[in-house]
Amino acid sequence: MKVFRAKQMATKRIEGDYKAQYALLRDYCGELVRANPGTSVKIEVEREPNHNSSTRQFKRIYICLGPLKEGFKACGRRILGLDGCFMKGPYPGQILTSVGIDSNNGIYPLAYALVESENTSSWTWFLKCLGEDLDLEVNSNFTFISDRQKGIIPALKKVYPMAEHRFCVRHIHENMKAKWKGDLYKNLLWECASSTTIPEFEGNMKMVRITNPALHDWLKEINPKHWSRAFFSGLATSDVLLNNLCEVFNRQLIGGRDKPIITCLEYIMEYCMKRIVVVLKQIAKAEGHLTPKASIIFEQIKSEASNYSVLWNGTSKYRVRERGGQDQCVVDVDARVCSCRRWELIGMPCKHAVAVNWTMAQYGMNPGPPETWVSEVYWMDTWKKVYKNTINPINGVNLWTPSQVPTTMIPPKHHSQIGRPSKKRKKSANEEIVPVKHGKMSQRGNTVTCNKCNAKGHNRRSCKEVVPQPQL
């Protein structure tokens, strides 16, 4: 017990006191705004019946750092991933996060909040705070991607009824696996989700109906505008189907989720600060007109474009046909669209458009290099503008300016559960649990093949096959 108490004292001295940090929260927020102009901080407390009370009970806090806000606007990609993860301390709640995509297709954290739970009320409050920072109107056509959490769906419908709300296909697959397991059904789902045109989507859904009518009926209950590229608009300049943006960011926050509230908020800010420095080092080494990942994607597109022939109609439209194949599309150069819709979805010329660009250059029409047709969101100049907005560090607690609010913040109520709190993530029922023994993955459930007789069910050591000896 002495060791346990000594560890508690050392931890409190290093990371801070869980209860005392709530009283310093307003001072911390003031220092954060002072060091990073343009930062939005909003604190909400529980309703207090006694207005003369000297204390207020903490409920929620929202933070959007000024540099991150300016960097997100400079990128120009109107899409945000939304997700939540659990706190692990004595006053647990949820961390809500919003993460965008930068010019190099990397994550770009924008805002985060500590709330009481992941419900409709907290998501509605979080989305309204985001809208004020990004100047979003009620009828905004902004794009959000999330899982199908029960609280976020009605919140988005209420705050931004005209917004495009995409569902993470991985979470749809997790729900689907409860009844339909296996790669066959998984591939059918992804074929439908990856379809970029409505005829292609309907053809893939027909294959689902032929394979399993029950699965087809289950998928039909989910509006395809939420999970298939065929129904996405091109306003987001991204065709992402997974909410990996938030998954990656939340995984980086594991080390701060069991800390006191200010230490946790500092942990998140420090990660964002360090990540900007890492990206700035990548930018210093990068060359070319496009960002590194955009260049890799576009090189693959150009390699596919060499298999197509082009026919001009005399205006801005071109017919593009695959040599020896059935793929045929129409490209409108002035409108910057192709009937395959890939150019419209990601803002990067598809293989059909690149073939048109080469044909125009061949006949002296001076279209410019294919890279000049790529959207500005992928340009190196845009990438540099995004990350020139760096986060400033803050002073220690002894240099914070005391808040002028007359009341003192106290922690939220929480009933501690009996026993040692769990820190590991709870796996879903459909996740495969692979046993590990002595640091190695178990082969339980795998079929062993003997490399002596090539029979299954045993290995070379237990093989009873008699191998004939060569005669001399």
Summarize this entry quickly.
38% of the residues lie in helices and 16% in strands.
- Helix share of residues? 25-40%
* Major sheet summary line: 8 strands, mixed
Poorly predicted spans = none
The quaternary state of the protein chains shown equals: single chain
Strand pairing plus helix content: what structural class?
alpha+beta
Q: Strand fraction band?
A: 15-25%
Mean pLDDT: 89
Approximate shape: globular
Tell me the total number of β-strands.
14
User: What sequence of helices (H) and strands (E) makes up the elements?
Assistant: HHHEEHEEEHEHEHHHHHHHEEEEHHHEEE
Number of helices: 16
How much is the radius of gyration in Å? 28 Å
How does this structure look, described?
- 38% of the residues lie in helices and 16% in strands.
- With 472 residues, it is α+β, with helices and mostly antiparallel strands.
- Among the domains are: 59-282, no CATH class; 294-378, no CATH class.
- Strands 1, 2, 3, 4, 5, 6, 7 and 12 form an eight-stranded mixed beta sheet that branches. Strands 8-9-10-11 form a four-stranded antiparallel beta sheet. A two-stranded antiparallel sheet has the order 13-14.
- The longest helix has 25 residues, at 261-285.
